[in-house]
């Protein structure tokens, strides 16, 4: 048996941010992490699997995000720009064509008075054959960027997201996001905080001012307060590896979990012996300098790709999100590699075997099949705002929830959202 003031389940960005703030405030903190590593959906490969530096999970800082940038500044960690051009490959050629009728889409979205799924909105307002290209473009975007299903995603939430799109530059964390995780971990441990890996929680027993937590290995932990910083996909699970059981049950909270969307993602890392996408033959296909490519969108089986521009590296990152990722969640790594190579071969007019011979390293991060994630990140459904209000209130001032799914703002689903939520949970406990 182990005792502490505050027990935290989950050593991702939200959980470690909470531990960092609580330990700084003098609370005795323990963190339980089911995996054998820290970081949750953050994991930087540093000289692993032949990758010198590559992000298996979260990668970008999307604009001017105060909590993320403030933490990095405190830690003395620098950022670097993620610049370059966005290309589109469709119908066998590279193009810069914009999404058809996007202005009309936004005009009609702005007139929408009652929320519904974006799929229902599209069918009602743009259901004809003449708008097929627009419907497909929206589905690709929602699946790729929001990792969401258009049949569930809130039209109001997407309207807010698209209205708030700006030209803020994207950045990466120099050295990878895991440098931030390492800083939070070191600071917590420096203040006597304890972190236990390979500690998958199975049961939570609770009453006002007291919790008892048991793990799959039979370990028992007691605390006055508990922060649950597990991914929403795990909290939605009712059985199987990763699922937890509350004693007594929390039906109001468990119903609220179901009312927030949680997407699906498969992320692929491919390192080659040379950047074939920067060759003269590609320049001839595109008609401009291929070294300026940052993002590449297509209709291939693996539709989205990006480089490490402006850094010249040998890594291409592939991205499959939303319903197509759910459809492939049980696919083997070998099957995903074949899809990746075939997609690149089709785009760049190469042979699959030619690309295979150039391949140095490959990794498939199937976050949807991972039992301790069970998806990608949150998105809003129609009832999500009400659900967040429920989940933002502690259970008997004893159990608190933290995670990117609780963030209500334009940076939903990001590291910024996770850090903000963890910070807020810690502040509530300190305030009480």
TrEMBL record:
Question: Which Pfam families does this one have?
Answer: Amino_oxidase
Reactions listed under catalytic activity: L-tryptophan + O2 = indole-3-acetamide + CO2 + H2O
**Is Oxidoreductase tagged as a keyword?**
yes
Which UniProt keywords are listed?
Auxin biosynthesis, Oxidoreductase
Q: Which Gene3D superfamilies match?
A: FAD/NAD(P)-binding domain
Query: Which EC main class describes this enzyme?
Result: oxidoreductase
Pathway stated in the Swiss-Prot or TrEMBL entry: Plant hormone metabolism; auxin biosynthesis
Its EC number is 1.13.12.3
| CC cofactor | FAD
Amine oxidase domain: from which residue to which, for each copy? 14-430
Write out the similarity annotation.
Belongs to the tryptophan 2-monooxygenase family.
Identify this protein by name.
Tryptophan 2-monooxygenase
């Amino acid at each position: 048996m182990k005792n502490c003031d505050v027990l935290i389940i989950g050593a991702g960005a939200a959980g470690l941010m909470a531990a960092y703030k609580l330990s700084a405030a003098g609370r005795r903190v323990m963190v339980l992490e089911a995996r054998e590593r820290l970081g949750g959906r953050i994991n930087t490969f540093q000289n692993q699997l032949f990758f010198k530096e590559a992000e298996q999970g979260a990668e970008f800082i999307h604009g001017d995000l105060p909590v993320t940038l403030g933490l990095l500044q405190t830690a003395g960690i620098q950022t670097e720009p993620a610049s370059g051009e966005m290309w589109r490959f469709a119908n066998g050629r590279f193009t810069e064509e914009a999404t058809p009728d996007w202005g009309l889409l936004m005009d009609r979205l702005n007139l929408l008075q009652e929320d519904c799924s974006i799929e229902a909105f599209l069918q009602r307002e743009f259901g004809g054959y003449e708008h097929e290209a627009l419907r497909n473009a929206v589905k690709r975007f929602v699946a790729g960027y929001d990792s969401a299903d258009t049949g569930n995603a809130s039209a109001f939430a997407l309207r807010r997201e698209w209205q708030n799109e700006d030209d803020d530059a994207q950045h990466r964390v120099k050295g990878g996001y895991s440098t931030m995780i390492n800083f939070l971990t070191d600071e917590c441990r420096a203040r006597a905080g304890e972190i236990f890996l390979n500690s998958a929680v199975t049961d939570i027993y609770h009453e006002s001012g007291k919790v008892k937590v048991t793990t799959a290995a039979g370990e028992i932990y007691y605390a006055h307060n508990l922060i649950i910083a597990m991914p929403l996909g795990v909290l939605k699970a009712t059985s199987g590896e990763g699922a937890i059981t509350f004693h007594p049950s929390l039906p109001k909270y468990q119903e609220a979990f179901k009312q927030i969307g949680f997407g699906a993602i498969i992320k692929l890392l491919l390192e080659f012996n040379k950047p074939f996408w920067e060759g003269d033959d590609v320049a001839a296909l595109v008609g401009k300098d291929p070294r300026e490519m940052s993002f590449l969108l297509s209709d291939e089986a693996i539709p989205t790709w990006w480089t490490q521009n402006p850094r010249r590296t040998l890594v291409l990152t592939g991205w499959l999100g939303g319903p197509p990722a759910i459809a492939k969640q049980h696919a083997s790594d070998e099957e995903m590699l074949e899809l990746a190579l075939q997609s690149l071969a089709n785009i760049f007019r190469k042979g699959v075997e030619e690309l295979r011979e150039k391949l140095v390293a490959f990794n498939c991060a199937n976050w949807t099949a991972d039992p301790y994630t069970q998806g990608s990140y949150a998105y809003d459904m129609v009832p999500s705002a009400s659900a967040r209000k429920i989940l933002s209130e502690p259970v008997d001032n004893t159990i608190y929830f933290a995670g990117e799914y609780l963030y209500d703002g334009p940076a939903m689903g990001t590291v910024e959202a996770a850090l903000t939520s963890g910070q807020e949970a810690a502040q509530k406990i300190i305030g009480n």
